[in-house]
Design a protein that fits this description.
Elements lengths: L2 H4 L51 H14 L3 E5 L2 H9 L7 E5 L4 H13 L3 E5 L4 H7 L4 E7 L11 H10 L3 E5 L4 H4 L9 E5 L13 E5 L2 H14 L5 H11 L2 H20 L4 E5 L9 H7 L6 E6 L2 H10 L4 E2 L9 E3 L11 H7 L5 E5 L5 H12 L1
Parallel strand pairs: 2-3, 2-4, 4-5, 5-6, 10-11
Antiparallel strand pairs: 1-7, 6-7, 8-9, 9-12, 11-12
Helix pairs in contact: 2-9, 5-6, 10-14, 12-14
């Protein structure tokens, strides 16, 4: 079956007990283990799979299985937020290990690596450009993993997933890819050689700005056991109601993302022609660095773009004047969101480091929603003028 069909038909489309279309919300913290103590301990199929909701829940499992199927992985693991998913995946390493990352990554990942995990002696090296050559040059005896985003957040830098994974594999490294921007609908890193994919399911997978969630998908059973051990021990799991919301959101992923992507393409083109816009960052623009590479490894440019105004005052004016884009944290919802990275997603990065990376006070990140593209362009032009 094609991916659009798998969004709906993933093995959990009906409830086996009642025939309900969709997995019920199993709002329970514990499960009856009585059959363990009766006779020979046998029970109806699946009855003894669950014991305590931190270790597993049928609603959560339905979501985990669905995303693993979409990504082409062996197993999925749902967490209470995207950061919880990233932290739990990094939690499979130990003190003294070394991880290679890109410089241009989500601010929450930067904060994790430079505060929490630094405190626990997990070392990392951030590369300005991730390539087989830079990865090989950064490898140390204690290096255990390569962690990348492509397109990156917030400057939409493109990394060659296949080539980078191959270089990491030569050295026995685990490659982790944050696929939040693309979703499995547009990009499948495991097929390109990655070992683990992470998502902030709060974003496009949930899709309605009403749930906080994270997902990790592993390529192999062995890696899955390691991630599950952290999930079960640390306990930052996704609750059943939130699991239901994300699973429901996934069913409309194709129609949402395709519409949002078409709108983002039009916004990027329109913004690139506005006199008060200095630069537009979007893989769908021919002049974007890495656009050809992105087109070769993804099914589309996505629904997120960034742009820089000519002055900080113009950026503030845009955020204050726009009527149709909510100045807010997050992305991937049905509404268009205009984020200001220096005060929102990347506020944890020191100002001097932000300036060096190009994350300036003139930078605005846009997540295209489901509004009419003509209305958004008119609104953006008025706000910029």
């Amino acid at each position: 079956m094609k991916l659009a069909t798998l969004l709906i038909h993933n093995g959990h489309e009906t409830d086996g007990a009642t025939g309900a279309l969709g997995t019920p919300v199993y709002q329970t913290s514990t499960f009856d283990r009585g059959p363990d103590f009766r006779g020979d301990g046998t029970a109806p199929a699946g009855r003894l799979e669950y014991d305590y909701a931190r270790s597993g829940n049928p609603t959560r499992k339905a979501l985990e299985d669905a995303v693993a199927l979409l990504e082409g992985g062996d197993g999925g693991y749902a967490f209470s937020s995207g950061v919880a998913a990233i932290a739990s995946v990094l939690g499979i390493f130990q003190a003294g290990d070394h991880v290679i990352t890109a410089e241009d990554i989500y601010g929450g990942s930067y904060r994790l690596l430079n505060t929490w995990f630094k405190r626990w002696a997990l070392q990392h090296t951030a590369l300005g450009r991730v390539s087989p050559e830079t990865v090989r040059a950064a490898i140390r005896p204690e290096t255990k993993a390569l962690f990348i985003e492509t397109p990156s957040n917030p400057l939409l830098k493109i990394t060659d997933i296949r080539a980078s994974c191959a270089a990491a594999r030569e050295a026995g490294l685990i490659t982790i890819v944050d696929n939040t921007f693309m979703t499995p609908l547009l990009q499948r890193p495991l097929e390109a050689g990655a070992d683990i994919v992470v998502h902030s399911a709060t974003k496009f997978l949930g899709g309605h700005s009403d749930v906080l969630a994270g997902i990790a998908v592993t390529k192999t059973r062995e890696l899955g056991k390691r991630v599950y051990a952290v999930q079960n021990t640390f306990g930052a799991v996704l609750g059943p109601w939130d699991s239901f919301l994300v699973a429901r959101g996934i069913k409309t992923l194709k129609v949402r993302v395709e519409t949002q992507q078409a709108t983002a393409s039009r916004l990027a083109d329109a913004l690139s022609r506005h006199r008060n816009v200095e630069t537009v960052y979007y893989p769908g623009l021919p002049g974007h660095t890495g656009a050809e590479l992105h087109a070769a490894q993804a099914e589309g440019p996505g629904a997120v773009l960034s742009f820089k105004t000519r002055t900080t005052e113009q950026a503030f004016a845009f955020l204050g004047r726009t009527r149709l884009a909510a100045p807010a944290v997050s992305l991937g919802g049905v509404e268009t969101i205009a984020s200001y990275p220096v005060r929102m997603s990347h506020a944890a990065i020191p100002p001097a480091e932000r300036d060096r990376l190009g994350i300036s006070g003139t930078l605005i990140r846009i997540s295209a929603g489901l509004e009419d593209a003509d209305d958004l362009i008119e609104d953006f032009y008025a706000a910029l003028s």
